Records
---
Amino acid sequence: MNYKIFFLFGLLACWQPIAAQHTAHSFYATMALIDAEELQEEHPQDITILAKRRNEAAVFLTEKASHQLHKKVLAHGPGYIFQPSQDAAISALHQAPTVTSKKMPLPFSITEDATVLQALNSINADNIENHIKELENYGTRYHTTNSARRSAEELKDKWEAMAAQYDRTDVRVRLVTHTNTPMPSVVMTIEGAVSPNDYVIVGGHLDSTSSQGNNNAPGADDDASGIATITEAARALFEIGFQPEKTIEVMAYAAEEIGLVGSAEIAKSYRNNNVNVVAVGQFDMTNYNGSTEDIYFIEDNTDPELNSFFKSLIGHYNQTGEHALTYSTSVCNYGCSDHASWHREGYRASFPFEASFSNSNPRIHTASDTFDLSGTATHAAKFAKLCAEFLIEVAKNQAVLSVPDFEKEGYQLFVQAQNLHYKALQTASPIDQISLKDVSGKSVLIKNKLAFSGNFSISNLPTGVYIATITTENKRQLSKKMVIR
Ligand code: BES
Ligand code: ZN
C-alpha cells in the first residue's frame, strides 16, 4: 500500500471545499442534495459540496451559479438557502426538522362583505404603476448597494406619510437591520384593536438582482410589483378607515435575491419570540400577465389550508363583475421566495403568483426587467384586491363602539322582550343591514333592507354576548356589543 498516494488523495479530498472559486461573490448555502449533485456535474467550477445529510447538502456557491440555477429551475429545482458561514451551513443540516403541527387554527369565515367591497372599489392601478416606476428608478436595489439602503429608508418615509395622510395613529413603520446583509427590511405595523398579539402578515422583497451586472437591476416585476401591490392594498384599507382586530404587518424584505436572507432572519426571530403569526401572504412578481388565468397559487412550501382559504376568497368576492378574476395552481419545486422562510418556521404561508411557473416573466434578473414590458398595472391590481380581501377577512374589524358613540352617530339598537329594536335618525344614512355575530365571530343572523326603524324577533338565539353590526346605505359599518338574556 502506497501511503504517500493515499495521503495525497486524502489531502485532495480535504481541499475540495475551495474548489469553487473563492471570490467576494461566493457564499455558503444549504440546498436539496439531488440539485447540488446535478449542478456539480454541469458546473463544477461554481459549486462545492461541503457536507451531505439525508436529502440535503451544505454547499459553497458562486453568485454566477445562483443565476445559472435560476435559469435551470424552469425545468426543476434547485433553490438554496443562504448561510452566513461554512459552520452555519453544516450545522443547518443537523437542525431538527421544523415542527409543522402546531399551527394556529385559521379563521375561515368570510363575513366582511361591505368592508371588502369598499376596499375593492378603492384599489387604484395607477398608484401601483407609479410606485413600480419609483422603485425601478433607483437603477439597482441589489442588497449591498447604497441605493438599496436608500430605497428601504425612503419606503419607510413613504409608508409613514401614507399613514399620516389618513390620520392613522395606530400605524408604526420600522427598519429591521440584519446580520447577513447591510440592507434593512421595512416593516409597517397596524396595531390590532382587539387581539394585538395575533399577527397577519403580507410581504414582498425590496431588493433586486441582475445577471448582467448588479449595478443595473431595475427589478420592476421582481419585485417592485409586489411592494407596490401590498402598499396599495394597505392604502385602500386606510382610505376606507379599516381598523383591524388583529395586528397587520406589511413587510418589504431585504436580500431575498441572495437566498431569502431578510425574511429568514425575521421569521426566525418571530419563531424564537413565539409570535403568533396566523397567516402570511407573499407577493413576489404580480404584474406580468403570462398565463391564461390571473393568479396561480404556488403549492410547494405553502400551507394547503391557507391556499384553500385564498381560493374561497376569490370564490366569494371575484366571481363576476368588475372585480372578477380567475386562478389556478403551479409549483416552484424549491423555496423560490420569502414564503419559504415562514413555512420553514412552521407558519402558514401562501404565495399567489403572476403566472404559471413556466410562463412567468422571462426578463427577471436582467437589466430589462422594466415596467414598460407590461405598460399598465392592471394585473398587479388584481393581486392588490386579493391582498385587501385577505387582510380584511383574516384580521377582521370588530371595532366596537360604546353606546354613547353609537348614538352620537345617529343610531339606536337595543333588546326588549326578545326583540331587537333599531332606529336611525332621519339625518343619518338609512340602515341597509343588521348582522349579529357570536363571540367566536360566527354570523348568527342577518336582516336586510331595514331603512329607518323597526324590530325583529331574536327569541331563537341562545343567551350570550353578541356583536351587532349596522351597515348603512352609504356602506359604513358600526358595531356594538349586545347581551341577550
Ligand atoms: N421572484 C423570484 C422567484 C420566482 C421566479 C418565482 C420565477 C417563480 C418564478 C425570486 O426573487 C427569486 O429570484 N428567487 C430565487 C431563489 C432564492 C432562494 C434566491 C430564484 O428563483 O432563483
Ligand atoms: Zn428574483
---
Amino acid sequence: MQDTPQTQFTTRVFSGVQPSGGLTLGNYLGAIRRFVDMQDDGNETLYCMVDQHAITVWQDPATLRRNTRQLAAGYLAAGLDPTRSILFNQSQVAAHAQLAWVFNCVARMGWMQRMTQWKDKAGKNQQNASLGLLAYPSLMAADILIYHATHVPVGEDQKQHIELTRDIAIKFNNDFGVDFFPATEPVIEGPATRVMSLRDGTKKMSKSDPSDMSRINLTDDADTIAQKIRKARTDPEALPSEAKGLEGRAEARNLVNIFGALNEQSVDQVLADFGGRQFSEFKPALADLAVAKLAPISSEMGRLMEQPEEIDAILAQGAEKARAIANPILKRAYEIVGFVGA
Ligand code: AQP
C-alpha cells in the first residue's frame, strides 16, 4: 500500500451507533437518516454497530446481542441497503481494536481526560470508570481511520471526538514522518443535529437516560409516541411566529426542531404554520407526524427481528467486506510503526 498525499484520499464515509439500548429519535434524525442520505448520494459508505464501544459501560450479554440485532434492523428499516453500504459489527473486524492499541500509544492522557463525554459518563466517580471509557475516543479514531474514512456523519455531541480523531491522525503522521492517515471531516448538518430530552430541554435525548419518557424509541407504538409528546415538558406560552421567539425556550425549540426535521421543513416554515397556536394544538400535530414517519420503520424492524439469521448473515458479509479494506491499512500502519513481520 502506498502512502497517500492528503489531497488524494478519495471520499469514503464511515459512522457507527452503539447497541447500548434501543434506537431513539435522536439517533435516527441526528445520524441514521443522514447515513441513508450519504448512501443514496452514491458515496462509498460503511456503517457499523459499535459493540466494543457499548461495553465501556456494563452491558448484559443477552441484551447486548438483542440490541445489536435490533440496531441492524433499524439500519435496514431506515433504508440502508447492504448491497450499497457495508454494514457490520465492530467486534467482528479485529483491525479496529488492533489499530486502537497503536493510537492508545500515540494519543495523550490529557486529550482523553478533556473529553466532555468522558466527564459526563464517568461523573464524579472517575476512579471507578472502566479504562475503556477513558480510551473510547482512541478506539473511535481507529474505527474511522482503519478505513481512511474522509467523512463521518454524526450528531453534534460527537464533534469533539472527530476533532480528536484528526489530532491523532496528525500526530501519527508527524511522529512517523508519513502522510498516511487523512484529516477526517465531521458531517454535522440538518435541523436535528442535537435532539433534546422530552423531559429537560437542556439534556440531549439519549438511549441510556433512565427515564423512558425522555425519549421516543423507534420501536414505540403510536399510543406511546402520542403519550410521550403529550407529556413532553413545555412552557405556557403560545408558539412564536419567528425562530427568534424561541430564544430561551429550550423545550419549545426542541419540539419545533423535531417537527421540522420529520417534515423536512425549516423552523421558519413550521412557525409560519403554527405561530400563535398553543401546545395543545401543536402537540397532537407533532404526534401524528411522528407516528406517520416512524410507524413504517418500526413495523419493518419488527419483521426483521423475527429473522435474526437474515440479520446475522448480512452482518457476516459486511464484516468480510470491511476486513478486506481494513487489513491492508493495518498492515501498512504496523510497518510504519516498526512491527516486524507485518
Ligand atoms: N439526541 C441526539 N440528537 C442528535 N444526534 C444524536 N445522536 C445520539 N443522540 C443524539 C447521534 O447518534 C449517533 C450514535 O450515537 P451513539 O449511540 O454512538 O452514542 P451517543 O451519542 O452517546 O448516543 P446515545 O443515544 O446518547 O447513547 P448512550 O445513551 O448509550 O450514550 C451519533 O452520531 C450521535 O451523535
